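Title: Prediction job returns without error message
Component: structure pipeline
Severity: low
Priority: P3
Assignee: unassigned

Description:
Job completed but the reporter wants confirmation the result is attached to the right record. Sequence as submitted:
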Amino acid sequence: MARSMETAERLASTLVSGLREAGFRLTPQRTAVCDALARREDHPTAQALFLELKPKFTSLSLTTVYQTLDTLVRTGTITSLGSAGDDSIHFEVNTDPHINLACLTCHRIRDLESRAVSALEREVQDAVGSKVLSGRVVYYSECLETANPRECPFFPKTRDKRGDHA
């Protein structure tokens, strides 16, 4: 699923600014990682971003993707969510307080707004005194779509040799 063009452009600008503030040289590859993140509403892995961008940026390395994402996490511009049951780190641009719901069947992650989480972040911020870059509340479910995980409409039908979804 994609964001509106206006929202994606605003987010991309914020992400690029995060890299610039961290002292990174803005290469076309790093800018492309920011643009791809800004367009997506899902919670992609570095590998997913790499596979999306590699056909257009043949010189792109997975290391560049990871370094770019790591810098954006350290500056608080994006959040690192960890695994959704797939042993891969997922990333997101929504840094507003919310709950992440992770499906252990298809490994999708969905956001759930919560006033309680917003209040908790304010409480933590007040207690810490310095800027809190991010926090996360993650709930794991067998399936976010149906009571029977085997009926999940996003359940991977095939897996490649590494166990990744085809």
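Comment from assignee: result matches the submitted record. The chain has one domain: 5-151.
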